[in-house]
Write a structure and sequence with these properties.
about 300 residues; mainly alpha; 3-stranded antiparallel sheet; two-stranded antiparallel sheet; about 5% strand; globular
Length: about 300
C-alpha cells in the first residue's frame, strides 16, 4: 500500500500531480521505507543514537542562522534583508525578510532540516538500492566527515556543527545539471507523501512545507555568505561590503532561473499557492471504523 507504481496513465493524474512529477520520480519505491529515514533519533542517554548529535547540531546551526538574520536588522543592514526576501537577481523585494515569526513555526521549519540530515546520513547505507538517494562525491565526503566525528570518543560540538553546515551547503548548492540528481529535491518529494493517509499531499497541505524549505535555504546561505561573527571587523577582513558579498551567493542560489534547488522549490510553491485557491483540503480529523479512536493527521489520539 506504500509502493508507488507509475502506470503512465496521464488521465489518472491531477494537474498538481503532473506538476510535481512524484509518481514517476518514486516509481517502485516504498514510501514508508523512505519516510522511516526521517525519524528523530532516540534521546536515551544509556543507548544514545549517534545521529542524535547531528539532530541537535542542526538545531544549533539553525539558531545561529536565525540570529544572523536578526543581527542584520539590529545593525540596520535592512537592505540585505530586502535582498534576502527577493527571488530576483536584478532588484530587492519591496518588503524585507521578516524577523517576526512564531517560535513554533521556526521549530517546525528547523525540523525539516533535521529530518533532511537524517535522510541523507541514513541513506548512505543503501547496498540494496532501497532508497534511491543520489549524492555527489563532495556530498559523500562531507557526510563521511560527519560520521567520523560521531565515532570520536569525545565529540566536539563546534567541529560537528562546522561539518553539518558544510554538508548542508553542498546540498543547497547542488547544480541541477550534475550527474547525480538533487537529494534535497528528492527529500522534498518524500515529504509530499502522507504515510498516515497513504496518499500524496495536495497543494494546500504541501505549500507550507515548501515555504519552510525556502526559509531554510535563505537563512543558511545568508550566514554562510556574511558570517555574524565577522561583522564587527568586516572592513578589516573583507574587501567587498556585506551586501556585495551576500549578492555573490544570492544571485546564484536564491533566485529563479538558476539551476539550483531554490528555483524548483520556489516555482512549485507559487504553483501550489495558485492551485490551492478555492480548493477544499482533506480533513485533518478522522475516526476508526468502530469510532473508538480519533485520528489527527493520520495519527491516533487516545
Amino acid at each position: 500500500m506504500y509502493e508507488i507504481h507509475d502506470q503512465g496513465i496521464l488521465e489518472e493524474l491531477t494537474p498538481w500531480m503532473r506538476r510535481t512529477g512524484w509518481v514517476g520520480r518514486f516509481d517502485g519505491r516504498n514510501m514508508k521505507v523512505l519516510n522511516d529515514l526521517l525519524s528523530e533519533p532516540k534521546r536515551n542517554v544509556e543507548n544514545r543514537d549517534k545521529l542524535r548529535f547531528v539532530w541537535e547540531s542542526v538545531e544549533r546551526m539553525m539558531k545561529q542562522c536565525w540570529d544572523s538574520v536578526n543581527d542584520c536588522w539590529n545593525r540596520d543592514w535592512k537592505l540585505i534583508l530586502h535582498w534576502l526576501a527577493s527571488d530576483s537577481k536584478t532588484e530587492p523585494d519591496a518588503a524585507p525578510f521578516s524577523i517576526y515569526m512564531d517560535r513554533k513555526t521556526r521549530k517546525r521549519y528547523t525540523g525539516y532540516w533535521q529530518q533532511f540530515m537524517m535522510f541523507v546520513l541514513r541513506g548512505l547505507d543503501d547496498a540494496d538500492d532501497q532508497y534511491g538517494i543520489e549524492y555527489t562525491e563532495l556530498q559523500k565526503r562531507a557526510l563521511g566527515e560527519i560520521n567520523r566525528e560521531l565515532w570520536e570518543d569525545d565529540i566536539n560540538e563546534v567541529e560537528l556543527d562546522k561539518k553539518v553546515t558544510t554538508a548542508s551547503l553542498l546540498f543547497i548548492q547542488h547544480r541541477s545539471f550534475a550527474k547525480r540528481r538533487s537529494a534535497l529535491l528528492y527529500f522534498s518529494g518524500v515529504l509530499g507523501f502522507h504515510v498516515g493517509w497513504k496518499r500524496w499531499k495536495g497543494p494546500g497541505d504541501y505549500t507550507t512545507i515548501l515555504a519552510g524549505l525556502q526559509w531554510i535555504l535563505r537563512i543558511v546561505l545568508l550566514e554562510s555568505a556574511i558570517p555574524k561573527d565577522d561583522r564587527d571587523e568586516w572592513d578589516e577582513k573583507y574587501q567587498e561590503d556585506p551586501l556585495q558579498q551576500f549578492r555573490q551567493s544570492h544571485d546564484i542560489f536564491l533566485v529563479t532561473g538558476e539551476p539550483y534547488p531554490y528555483d524548483q522549490i520556489h516555482s512549485l510553491l507559487n504553483y501550489g499557492l495558485r492551485a490551492s485557491i478555492n480548493v477544499i483540503t482533506r480533513s485533518r480529523i478522522g475516526w476508526s471504523a468502530d469510532e473508538s479512536i480519533l485520528y489527527l493527521d493520520g495519527r491516533p489520539n487516545h
